Amino acid sequence: MTTSPTPASPACPASPTSVGPGPVRAGRPASGALVGLALGDALGFPTEFNDVPSILAKCGPWRSMELPAPAFVTDDTQMTLALARALWRAGDGTLLDPARTLAPVRDEFVAWYRSPDNDRAPGRTCLTACALLETGTGPWQDASQVHSKGCGANMRVVPVGLLSGLDDERRAGLAQAQGALTHGHPTALAASDLTAHAVRLLAHGADPTGLVGRLRSYAFENRTRYHEHWLGDLWQRAGDASPEDFIARGWDECSAVLDRLRDALRDPSPETDPCLVTGEGWIAEEALATALLCFLLFPGDPLTALRRAACTSGDSDSIACLTGAFAGAHLGADVWPAAWVDRLEHRDELLAFGALWDA
């Protein structure tokens, strides 16, 4: 899909004066999650790489931050859509397996890498791995960056949590494998799995107050479960003694940051930069935890959650995009203002995939 060029550092605009043609349909968790992801991405785009005082100086009080117009997205939404296209090409979720799924994912990631619109400060790991995926003749594991656990692995995984027809085993394996195509560190795999699982739980009505506990239990239950059917011999490239030792490293790091999140929610401080509590979000487990913190501080107020996520000292666009996905999966599509949705880059494609998976 052709998109317009974007300025390298978009400015925070004044409040809009016009309203678009109307809101998206209510009660659609997949549409809500995908639109929320893109809204958070676009809201956090102007604030990434800024500290909080600089953001406040540029955008004013964080609780009244406005979405840029037009609302350009970053590589976070671009790669989410690349994964969505690949899953659509692969077919019904009940039929997905590595042979059927990973080839189109690889193709779509390479197409993103080659796109002229890939100019939104993409992550180095994604660029390196996609270049190898394009030129390599061997298995995809040869391209995977096994020492990188950047948030590029899980900022794009939301479609896996929304896709219908996937059983738990397929969902976990696919979530980890799509991350591993670029980020092969076990923590990137575990964080991708947890992110997709959180989206799935929220889309199916899970109570946000119990979400962290359920994610901690999931991490404990899966600590030594290596999805060899999906990951192949990836673990051997990292130097661990066994596949169980490899994946346990990732789950242990994710469990540690979930413990920090649990502790933070016992005494919440909405005015404190969330990055000071659960990390700046440049790495996968911290992006997950800090996005969850922003969502869980305001589980019934998604715009405030997005604004809090965008006004952070870390990887603001990735934190805000995951915050928006969690809020949209929980509350549905109608929570997002029409005036914001209508200015979104890729709006039509996001809504099309949302409608497909909501159906």
Task: Report on this structure.
The chain has one domain: ADP-ribosylation/Crystallin J1 (ADP-ribosylglycohydrolase fold, Orthogonal Bundle), CATH 1.10.4080.10. The protein is an all-alpha fold. It is globular and about 50 Å long. Helices cover 57% and strands 0% of the residues. The protein is built from 17 helices and no strands. The N terminus is likely disordered. The two termini are 23 Å apart. Helix 8 packs across helix 9.
Task: Give the helices and strands, then pairings.
Blueprint: H1 29-44, H2 52-59, H3 75-90, H4 98-114, H5 124-135, H6 158-162, H7 168-180, H8 186-203, H9 211-221, H10 228-231, H11 243-266, H12 275-278, H13 284-297, H14 302-310, H15 316-331, H16 338-341, H17 347-358
Share in β-strands = under 5%
User: What is the CATH third-level topology name?
Assistant: ADP-ribosylglycohydrolase fold
Q: Measure the end-to-end span.
A: 23 Å
Q: Helix proportion of residues, in percent?
A: 55-70%
> Could you name the CATH class?
Mainly Alpha
Mean pLDDT across all amino acids: 92
Number of domains: 1
As residue ranges, the low-confidence spans are: 1-26
User: Tell me, what's the shape?
Assistant: globular
CATH superfamily: ADP-ribosylation/Crystallin J1
DSSP, total strands? 0
What brief labels describe this structure?
single chain; 359 residues; mainly alpha; ADP-ribosylglycohydrolase fold; 57% helix; 0% strand; globular; disordered N terminus
Nutshell version of this structure?
With 359 residues, the protein is mainly alpha-helical. Helix content is 57%, strand content 0%.
